[in-house]
Amino acid sequence: GNSVTQMEGPVTLSEEAFLTINCTYTATGYPSLFWYVQYPGEGLQLLLKATKADDKGSNKGFEATYRKETTSFHLEKGSVQVSDSAVYFCALSDHGAGSYQLTFGKGTKLSVIP
Amino acid sequence: EAGVVQSPRYKIIEKKQPVAFWCNPISGHNTLYWYRQNLGQGPELLIRYENEEAVDDSQLPKDRFSAERLKGVDSTLKIQPAELGDSAVYLCASSLPGTPEKTQYFGPGTRLLVL
Questions:
Q1: What is the dihedral of CA B22, B25, B30, B34, to 10 degrees?
Q2: Considering chain A, what is the average pLDDT of its residues?
Q3: DSSP codes, chain A
Q4: Span B3-31, mean pLDDT?
Q5: Which pLDDT score is estimated for A17?
Q6: Could you tell me which of B43, B47, B49 has the C-alpha nearest to residue B31?
Q7: Which of B56, B107, B108 is facing A101, going by the closest CB pair?
Q8: In this complex, do B106 and A44 lie within 8 Å of one another by their Cβ atoms?
Q9: At residue B104, does pLDDT exceed 60?
Q10: I need a labelling partner for B24 at 20 to 30 A (CA). Which of A69, B54, B81, B89 fits?
Q11: Mind telling me how many Å the CA of A45 is from chain B's nearest CA?
Q12: CB contact under 8 A, B31 and A44
């Protein structure tokens, strides 16, 4: 079956530090990959996505590259801000296997301190 | 454009009581999903609708959970009777038809506490 594994948190960084949150996946078909963010007290918001190998998704200074050879989709940002404090979820949808269900990782909590 | 709307935002009930959650998807989104998110975990799909048809309900605990999407727009998820283990956040999401990547847009969720 499909699965997503992301690095466990919590992660605490100082403002302007470099961020990497690792994400690897297992899929039976041809997945699309997503990063969702959940700010305190709010619902999940799509941060970025990539639909095929070597695609790079980017948004708000965050980026992630779909690496089929390593089955990875690591999230990066060059300089984090306090406002980036949230829980980040890596997810996939395996439409190639006929399923549009999103399979999520457990989430990584990021705290950015001034 | 309005996002996915859910109500109530919070609900506290005693075990064995019934509870219902309501969702209004983004206009034009034919596909609707209900997810359950346990504390410290990612969301897990309960049921997916294409218009008014439930096309994937394999992970819905049918002994106590039910859902409906009359007229293919709003949806209601019900639990009867609720158990302590049902305490979680219930998320509704919707997506456009015909898009390969099927990006899902989530509502704010209903946080349920069963005492």
A1: -50
A2: 92
A3: --EEEE--S-EEEETT--EEE-EEEE-SS--EEEEEEE-TTS-EEEEEEE-STT-EEEETTEEEE-BTTTTB--EEESS--GGG-EEEEEEEE-GGGT---EEE---EEEEEE-
A4: 95
A5: 97
A6: B49
A7: B56
A8: yes
A9: yes
A10: B81
A11: 7
A12: no
Mean pLDDT, residues A7-12 taken together = 90
- pLDDT computed for residue B101 by the predictor: 65
Q: Hey, what are B14's tokens?
A: 């005693």
**More confident call, A63 vs B3:** A63
Is the predicted pLDDT of residue B100 greater than 60, yes or no? no
Mean pLDDT for the stretch of residues B82-96: 95
> Taking CB atoms and an 8 Å cut-off, how many pairs form between chains A and B?
58
What's the one-letter identity of residue A40?
A: P
Closest CA to A88 of A40, A53, A55, A56: A40
Query: Quick one: average pLDDT of A66-82?
Result: 96
Tell me if B8 sits within 8 A of A9, measured CB to CB.
no
Between CA A93 and CA A35 the distance in angstroms is: 12
CA-to-CA distance for B51 and A98, rounded, in angstroms? 18
Taking contacts as CB-CB distances below 8 angstroms, the residues of chain A near B4 are 43
